[in-house]
Amino acid sequence: MTHKDAILLVNLGSPDSTSIPDIKRYLAEFLMDKYVIDLPWPLRAAIVYGPILTFRPKKTSAAYKSVWTKSGSPLIQISKGLQKKVLEKLDKPVYLAMRYGNPSIPDVINAIKKEKPDLKSLTVIPLYPQYAMSTTLTVEKAVKKAAKELNFKAKINFKSAFYNDPDYINALVQSAKKQLDGAEHILFSYHGLPERHLRKTDPGSHCTSEACCDTASDAWKTCYKHQAKVTSDLFMQILGKEISYSIAFQSRLGPDKWISPSTEDEIIRLGETGKKNIHVICPSFVADCLETLEEINMEGRETFLEHGGESFTYIPCLNTTEAWVDTVVKWCK
């Protein structure tokens, strides 16, 4: 059967192995992206090829080793599992690429061009619920660049951020609710961003106001912090349980001012103010990875228990749950 359209799922990526050379290669590609560290190239290169690649790879390698499986990177394996399950329910080709590392966007675009020379359209789904220049935007830029360089003729459509999509929210709730019986407090931990990233994606000056996340604006279309708040609020509405909750942002890098509060600070605050058990969910990730398995479920757990907490429950990402697979299939039709 000749298919006229196809799907490309894109996730963040992982190093090829936990070896120092592979970690360095991956970090260099990731952090030299001007949409991640958005500084002039000379300064970005000085930071990345200087202190970061000198001191960080050993620590990062150890962190990856703590979550690595016999099959390799959890994020890669889970993403492949999602691709496989979507493909089983969909009568069209489904491809998978990583923004950094392998399979790379250029390699996959090239493979699609060779395998489907008569393809008319390609729908790209960046697997990031909330919009950010360091996730959604950089995927769009990388796909367009590869398509241009490879003379890829099919029309390319991009799935927009799905932070408030009812099916996504429902899948999130369905994947978590069984673990929330008796929960005292839910912490929503989102990947962090430097505050300047919010200002750069702000079409005006809305993000400089105090109540910007609660005051309607066109800026909401590209405001990561607002979208994180909406995801959390919708989750609690659908969950329908009277449980206290808070929002924080993890994975900070460098001395810049980042969106606050930090997840580490919030975990400490919760423990020191008397919360004995917390449940932590990471809605900015759709597949478990280093940031969820090591940073939250290992480091976050240890921090909470050290500051007065007694029970720490990490709620896994959507991964390949049935409701999430069905949601992606629906978007692909």
* Biggest pleated sheet: 4 strands, parallel
CATH architecture of the largest domain: 3-Layer(aba) Sandwich
Task: Write the element-wise H/E pattern from the N-terminal end onward.
Answer: EHHHEHEHEHEHHEHEHHEH
**Count of structural domains:** 2
Structure write-up:
The chain is of the alpha/beta class and 333 residues long. It has 2 domains: 5-161, Rossmann fold; 166-315, Rossmann fold, CATH 3.40.50.1400. The protein has 12 helices and 8 strands. It has a 4-stranded parallel sheet with strand order 2-1-3-4, sandwiched between helices. The longest helix is centred in the first third of the chain and has 27 residues, at 41-67. The radius of gyration is 20 Å and the shape is globular.
Map the helices and strands.
Elements lengths: L4 E7 L8 H12 L9 H27 L6 H15 L5 E5 L6 H11 L5 E6 L6 H17 L5 E4 L7 H11 L8 E7 L3 H6 L23 H16 L4 E7 L12 H10 L4 E5 L8 H4 L1 H12 L4 E5 L6 H11 L1
Parallel strand pairs: 1-2, 1-3, 3-4, 5-6, 5-7, 7-8
Key descriptive features of the protein:
333 residues; alpha/beta; Rossmann fold; 2 domains; 12 helices; 8 strands; globular
Summarize the structure.
The chain is α/β, with parallel strands linked by helices.
